Protein backbone atom coordinates (compact mmCIF):
# COMPACT_ATOMS: atom_id res chain seq x y z
CA UNK A 1 0.00 0.00 0.00
CA UNK A 2 2.83 2.42 0.86
CA UNK A 3 4.48 1.66 -2.47
CA UNK A 4 1.22 2.36 -4.33
CA UNK A 5 0.84 5.68 -2.54
CA UNK A 6 4.35 6.68 -3.56
CA UNK A 7 3.75 5.75 -7.19
CA UNK A 8 0.49 7.68 -7.32
CA UNK A 9 2.02 10.96 -6.18
CA UNK A 10 1.60 13.58 -8.93
CA UNK A 11 4.67 15.06 -10.59
CA UNK A 12 5.05 18.66 -11.67
CA UNK A 13 5.20 19.19 -15.43
CA UNK A 14 7.10 22.33 -16.45
CA UNK A 15 4.90 24.16 -18.98
CA UNK A 16 6.67 27.52 -19.34
CA UNK A 17 8.04 28.95 -22.58
CA UNK A 18 11.61 28.46 -21.38
CA UNK A 19 10.84 24.77 -20.74
CA UNK A 20 9.69 24.12 -24.32
CA UNK A 21 12.34 22.42 -26.47
CA UNK A 22 12.68 23.78 -30.00
CA UNK A 23 14.20 21.82 -32.89
CA UNK A 24 13.71 21.37 -36.62
CA UNK A 25 10.77 19.08 -35.84
CA UNK A 26 8.66 21.80 -34.23
CA UNK A 27 10.24 25.09 -35.36
CA UNK A 28 7.43 25.80 -37.85
CA UNK A 29 4.79 25.27 -35.16
CA UNK A 30 6.66 27.50 -32.71
CA UNK A 31 6.96 30.24 -35.34
CA UNK A 32 3.24 29.97 -36.00
CA UNK A 33 2.47 30.32 -32.30
CA UNK A 34 4.67 33.42 -32.10
CA UNK A 35 2.76 34.87 -35.07
CA UNK A 36 -0.65 34.16 -33.53
CA UNK A 37 -2.00 37.65 -34.09
CA UNK A 38 -1.65 37.04 -37.83
CA UNK A 39 -3.65 33.80 -38.00
CA UNK A 40 -6.11 33.79 -40.88
CA UNK A 41 -9.68 33.75 -39.55
CA UNK A 42 -8.17 33.93 -36.04
CA UNK A 43 -7.66 30.17 -35.88
CA UNK A 44 -4.91 27.56 -36.06
CA UNK A 45 -4.60 23.79 -35.70
CA UNK A 46 -1.55 22.41 -33.90
CA UNK A 47 -0.95 18.90 -35.26
CA UNK A 48 1.54 16.35 -33.99
CA UNK A 49 1.97 12.79 -32.72
CA UNK A 50 1.22 11.71 -29.18
CA UNK A 51 3.52 13.22 -26.52
CA UNK A 52 5.10 15.60 -29.07
CA UNK A 53 4.55 18.70 -26.94
CA UNK A 54 1.21 19.92 -28.29
CA UNK A 55 -0.27 20.51 -24.85
CA UNK A 56 2.90 22.24 -23.67
CA UNK A 57 2.98 24.55 -26.69
CA UNK A 58 -0.76 25.20 -26.37
CA UNK A 59 -0.23 26.27 -22.77
CA UNK A 60 2.63 28.51 -23.86
CA UNK A 61 0.20 30.19 -26.24
CA UNK A 62 -2.49 30.35 -23.57
CA UNK A 63 -0.04 32.22 -21.34
CA UNK A 64 0.78 34.62 -24.20
CA UNK A 65 -2.81 35.25 -25.25
CA UNK A 66 -4.75 34.79 -22.04
CA UNK A 67 -6.60 31.87 -23.62
CA UNK A 68 -8.92 29.56 -21.74
CA UNK A 69 -8.31 25.83 -22.23
CA UNK A 70 -10.87 23.06 -22.69
CA UNK A 71 -10.90 19.52 -24.09
CA UNK A 72 -13.10 19.09 -27.17
CA UNK A 73 -15.12 16.32 -25.49
CA UNK A 74 -15.97 18.72 -22.63
CA UNK A 75 -17.45 21.38 -24.91
CA UNK A 76 -21.07 21.24 -23.76
CA UNK A 77 -23.65 24.04 -23.92
CA UNK A 78 -22.57 25.55 -20.60
CA UNK A 79 -18.92 25.60 -21.70
CA UNK A 80 -19.86 27.21 -25.02
CA UNK A 81 -21.75 29.96 -23.18
CA UNK A 82 -18.66 30.65 -21.06
CA UNK A 83 -16.22 30.64 -23.98
CA UNK A 84 -18.13 32.16 -26.89
CA UNK A 85 -17.03 35.70 -26.02
CA UNK A 86 -13.57 34.82 -24.71
CA UNK A 87 -10.71 36.66 -26.46
CA UNK A 88 -8.77 33.43 -26.90
CA UNK A 89 -9.52 29.72 -26.53
CA UNK A 90 -7.57 26.45 -26.73
CA UNK A 91 -9.54 23.33 -27.64
CA UNK A 92 -7.44 20.23 -27.03
CA UNK A 93 -7.81 16.87 -28.79
CA UNK A 94 -10.16 18.22 -31.42
CA UNK A 95 -10.39 14.84 -33.12
CA UNK A 96 -11.60 13.25 -29.85
CA UNK A 97 -15.06 14.73 -29.58
CA UNK A 98 -16.73 11.92 -27.68
CA UNK A 99 -20.20 10.55 -28.38
CA UNK A 100 -22.06 13.87 -28.20
CA UNK A 101 -22.87 14.81 -31.81
CA UNK A 102 -23.60 18.35 -30.66
CA UNK A 103 -19.92 18.99 -29.95
CA UNK A 104 -19.30 19.59 -33.66
CA UNK A 105 -22.01 22.27 -33.82
CA UNK A 106 -20.70 23.96 -30.68
CA UNK A 107 -17.11 23.84 -31.93
CA UNK A 108 -18.25 25.43 -35.20
CA UNK A 109 -19.99 28.24 -33.32
CA UNK A 110 -16.84 28.79 -31.25
CA UNK A 111 -14.61 28.92 -34.33
CA UNK A 112 -17.11 31.11 -36.15
CA UNK A 113 -17.06 33.61 -33.30
CA UNK A 114 -13.28 33.92 -33.54
CA UNK A 115 -13.43 34.25 -37.34
CA UNK A 116 -15.84 37.12 -36.85
CA UNK A 117 -13.05 39.15 -35.28
CA UNK A 118 -13.80 38.49 -31.62
CA UNK A 119 -10.58 36.64 -30.82
CA UNK A 120 -8.38 33.66 -31.56
CA UNK A 121 -8.75 29.88 -31.23
CA UNK A 122 -6.13 27.13 -31.24
CA UNK A 123 -7.09 23.48 -31.75
CA UNK A 124 -4.73 20.60 -31.00
CA UNK A 125 -4.94 17.19 -32.65
CA UNK A 126 -2.90 14.17 -33.68
CA UNK A 127 -4.00 14.47 -37.31
CA UNK A 128 -5.03 17.11 -39.81
CA UNK A 129 -8.69 18.22 -39.89
CA UNK A 130 -9.42 16.23 -43.05
CA UNK A 131 -8.81 13.03 -41.05
CA UNK A 132 -11.09 13.88 -38.11
CA UNK A 133 -14.21 12.32 -39.62
CA UNK A 134 -16.23 15.51 -39.22
CA UNK A 135 -19.92 15.13 -40.02
CA UNK A 136 -20.73 18.84 -40.03
CA UNK A 137 -19.67 20.37 -43.39
CA UNK A 138 -19.52 23.90 -41.95
CA UNK A 139 -17.08 22.80 -39.26
CA UNK A 140 -14.97 20.88 -41.78
CA UNK A 141 -14.77 24.00 -43.93
CA UNK A 142 -13.89 26.24 -41.00
CA UNK A 143 -11.22 23.84 -39.71
CA UNK A 144 -9.70 23.59 -43.18
CA UNK A 145 -9.32 27.38 -43.25
CA UNK A 146 -7.33 27.42 -40.00
CA UNK A 147 -3.58 27.87 -40.12
CA UNK A 148 -1.84 24.50 -39.86
CA UNK A 149 1.00 24.29 -37.32
CA UNK A 150 2.69 20.89 -37.78
CA UNK A 151 5.03 19.10 -35.40
CA UNK A 152 7.06 16.53 -37.30
CA UNK A 153 8.94 13.38 -36.40
CA UNK A 154 11.58 14.01 -33.73
CA UNK A 155 15.30 14.08 -34.45
CA UNK A 156 17.92 12.61 -32.12
CA UNK A 157 18.61 15.89 -30.38
CA UNK A 158 14.95 16.55 -29.63
CA UNK A 159 14.32 13.00 -28.39
CA UNK A 160 17.28 13.31 -26.03
CA UNK A 161 16.14 16.71 -24.78
CA UNK A 162 12.56 15.49 -24.30
CA UNK A 163 13.77 12.51 -22.30
CA UNK A 164 15.88 14.73 -20.03
CA UNK A 165 12.97 17.18 -19.56
CA UNK A 166 10.38 14.50 -18.78
CA UNK A 167 12.79 12.95 -16.29
CA UNK A 168 13.44 16.34 -14.69
CA UNK A 169 9.66 16.88 -14.38
CA UNK A 170 9.68 13.77 -12.18
CA UNK A 171 12.74 14.80 -10.19
CA UNK A 172 15.06 12.38 -12.03
CA UNK A 173 18.52 13.35 -13.22
CA UNK A 174 19.88 11.49 -16.27
CA UNK A 175 23.51 11.52 -17.35
CA UNK A 176 24.30 11.67 -21.10
CA UNK A 177 25.48 8.05 -21.16
CA UNK A 178 22.11 6.83 -19.89
CA UNK A 179 20.21 8.94 -22.43
CA UNK A 180 22.36 7.73 -25.34
CA UNK A 181 21.91 4.12 -24.22
CA UNK A 182 18.13 4.53 -24.11
CA UNK A 183 17.86 6.22 -27.50
CA UNK A 184 19.79 3.41 -29.19
CA UNK A 185 17.31 0.83 -27.89
CA UNK A 186 13.97 2.60 -27.54
CA UNK A 187 11.35 3.15 -30.24
CA UNK A 188 12.06 6.55 -31.77
CA UNK A 189 8.85 8.35 -30.90
CA UNK A 190 7.71 10.90 -28.34
CA UNK A 191 5.19 8.43 -26.90
CA UNK A 192 7.80 5.71 -26.43
CA UNK A 193 10.15 8.12 -24.65
CA UNK A 194 7.34 9.29 -22.35
CA UNK A 195 6.44 5.68 -21.53
CA UNK A 196 10.07 4.80 -20.85
CA UNK A 197 10.53 7.73 -18.45
CA UNK A 198 7.34 6.73 -16.63
CA UNK A 199 8.59 3.15 -16.25
CA UNK A 200 12.03 4.36 -15.21
CA UNK A 201 10.51 6.58 -12.52
CA UNK A 202 8.47 3.69 -11.15
CA UNK A 203 11.42 1.29 -11.23
CA UNK A 204 13.66 3.80 -9.45
CA UNK A 205 11.08 4.16 -6.66
CA UNK A 206 10.18 0.50 -6.23
CA UNK A 207 13.77 -0.75 -6.42
CA UNK A 208 15.31 2.23 -4.63
CA UNK A 209 17.91 2.52 -7.41
CA UNK A 210 19.38 5.46 -9.28
CA UNK A 211 17.81 6.13 -12.74
CA UNK A 212 21.00 5.17 -14.54
CA UNK A 213 22.13 3.07 -17.50
CA UNK A 214 22.04 -0.12 -15.45
CA UNK A 215 18.43 0.42 -14.43
CA UNK A 216 17.51 1.31 -18.00
CA UNK A 217 19.03 -2.00 -19.09
CA UNK A 218 16.57 -3.89 -16.91
CA UNK A 219 13.72 -2.10 -18.71
CA UNK A 220 15.02 -2.19 -22.27
CA UNK A 221 16.91 -5.51 -22.32
CA UNK A 222 15.27 -7.60 -19.58
CA UNK A 223 16.56 -10.86 -21.02
CA UNK A 224 20.21 -9.82 -21.23
CA UNK A 225 22.83 -11.05 -18.72
CA UNK A 226 23.19 -8.63 -15.85
CA UNK A 227 19.86 -6.96 -16.51
CA UNK A 228 18.45 -8.12 -13.18
CA UNK A 229 21.00 -6.15 -11.18
CA UNK A 230 20.48 -2.38 -11.59
CA UNK A 231 23.68 -1.60 -9.68
CA UNK A 232 24.89 1.96 -9.39
CA UNK A 233 26.93 2.60 -12.52
CA UNK A 234 26.20 5.81 -14.43
Describe the structure in your own words:
The chain is of the alpha/beta class and 234 residues long. It has 2 domains: 26-150, Rossmann fold, CATH 3.40.50.300; 154-220, Helicase, Ruva Protein, domain 3 (Orthogonal Bundle), CATH 1.10.8. Helix content is 47%, strand content 10%. It has 10 helices and 5 strands; from the N terminus they run ααβαβαβαβαβαααα. The protein has a 5-stranded parallel β-sheet with strand order 2-3-4-1-5, sandwiched between helices. It is elongated. The two termini are 30 Å apart.
Report the CATH topology name of the largest domain.
Answer: Rossmann fold
Helix content estimate: 40-55%
Percent of residues in beta strands? 5-15%
CATH class of the largest domain: Alpha Beta
User: What structural class do the secondary elements suggest?
Assistant: alpha/beta
Number of helices: 10
Q: In sequence order, what are the helices and strands, one letter per element?
A: HHEHEHEHEHEHHHH
Number of domains: 2
Computed CA radius of gyration, to the nearest angstrom: 20 Å
CATH-derived architecture of the largest domain: 3-Layer(aba) Sandwich
What structural keywords apply?
alpha/beta, 5-stranded parallel beta sheet, 5 strands, Rossmann fold, 47% helix, single chain, Helicase, Ruva Protein, domain 3, disordered C terminus
Quick description:
By secondary structure, the protein is of the alpha/beta class.
Secondary structure layout:
Blueprint (H helix, E strand, L loop, with lengths): L1 H6 L19 H8 L8 E5 L6 H12 L2 E4 L5 H7 L4 E5 L9 H17 L1 E6 L11 H9 L1 E4 L5 H14 L6 H10 L4 H18 L5 H8 L14
Parallel strand pairs: 1-4, 1-5, 2-3, 3-4
Amino acid sequence: MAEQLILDLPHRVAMGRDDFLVSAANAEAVAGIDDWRGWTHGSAVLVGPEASGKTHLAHVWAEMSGARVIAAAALDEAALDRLIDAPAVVVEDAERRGEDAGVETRLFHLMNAQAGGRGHILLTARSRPAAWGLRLPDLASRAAQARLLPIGAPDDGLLAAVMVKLAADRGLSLVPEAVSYALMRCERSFAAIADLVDRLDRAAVTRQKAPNRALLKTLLEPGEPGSTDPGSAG
